[in-house]
Every structure is written in C-alpha cells, then in structure tokens.
Design brief:
Length: about 180
C-alpha cells in the first residue's frame, strides 16, 4: 500500500445485469412401476392391542410398561415393467427410513432397513410383502424420508440397481410446485 497512488479520485464501476445460466437437470428415466401402500399405526393402538393380548397372570403391571412408538407399514404389492438385465432377474425391494438431516448423529446409523423376499426369474414380480418400521413416532416420521429401491439379486458379485423412489411428508407450510425443465 505504500506505493499506491490515491490521487486518481473516486471511480464508479457499474455492474452488468444478472444473468441466469440454466443448469441442465438430469433427465428422469422410466425404469418401471412399483405398487405400494403406506399405513401408520399409532403407539396407543399398538399398546392397547398388547394389553388385550396379555394374559391376566402377567407379572408386569400395566402401568410399568414403557410407552410404545408407532409403526410405519409399507405394503409392497408388485413391480411392473422393470428394466433389468434379462429374463433371469431375481428382484427384491429394500426399504430405508432415512433421517436426511446432515447434522444428526451419523445419518447412516439413523437408518432403519427392511428387505422383501427375492422373487426369482420374474421382471413383473408380485412381492406382497409388508415392510414394518417399528418404534417411530409421528413427529419423528415427519423429518424422515422413506427410500424404496428395487435390486436384482446376483449370487456372485454386486446386486444390480433396477430403480427406486424416495418419499417424504414434506416440511413446507404451503404446498408448492417446482418447475422441472427438460434439457433439449
């Protein structure tokens, strides 16, 4: 700064207009259909059913029982038109209940994993499986995402990814649509 000359006076530079540079979004590929249904069973209902099943000779007092969280049930009925590696595919569904908060303790450890049975040799499998995520409160469920992925079971090597979907309740105060532009 010792050698800089300040005698030039003030200089005003005008900035140009802000220009948005469109970033192409990855195109979504159709990889098949998955049919499923979701149901949340409250902890109070689960506890009431447990109390009804308990016999009268139980040594534990009903008031001493811990509160029970709810249960999220995902009924995976079937998949159709899976894009796979041939007719000999053996698909199955993996379900994760993910805590997407990066600040939470070890996001990986806050996952809850469930898996359906493997249906051998069918690209339109009927799973008819219920993936049950236990001890989840409704409040905790609002902050999590349900990720369902379909995989081709391979005996030797890595399983092949066939498709997937991520569902969540959402946190917006009002519903809003996001415009997705397709690249041309």
């Amino acid at each position: 700064m010792e050698n800089y000359r300040f005698d030039g006076g003030p200089q005003v530079l005008h900035l140009g207009r802000r220009v948005e540079i469109p970033v192409p979004l990855p195109t979504l590929m159709y990889r098949g259909d998955i049919m499923l249904a979701l149901r949340y069973v409250s902890g109070e209902l689960i506890k009431a059913n447990q109390l009804a099943r308990d016999d009268s000779n139980s040594k534990v007092e009903h008031n001493d029982r811990k509160p029970v969280g709810g249960r999220l049930e995902v009924w995976v009925q079937n998949c159709r038109n899976l894009a796979g590696s041939g007719s000999g595919a053996s698909p199955y569904v993996k379900g994760y209940l993910i805590n997407p908060d990066p600040d939470s303790r070890a996001t990986r450890s806050s996952r809850v994993k469930q898996k359906s049975a493997i249906v051998k040799g069918d690209m339109n499998p009927n799973f008819n499986s219920i993936l049950a995520f236990e001890n989840i409160s409704l409040r905790d469920l609002k902050g999590r995402s349900l990720e369902l992925t379909v995989w081709d079971h391979v005996k030797i090597g890595r399983n092949d990814f066939l498709g997937g979907v991520r569902l969540n309740v959402g946190t917006a105060a009002t519903p809003a649509w996001t415009l997705v532009a397709t690249s041309r």
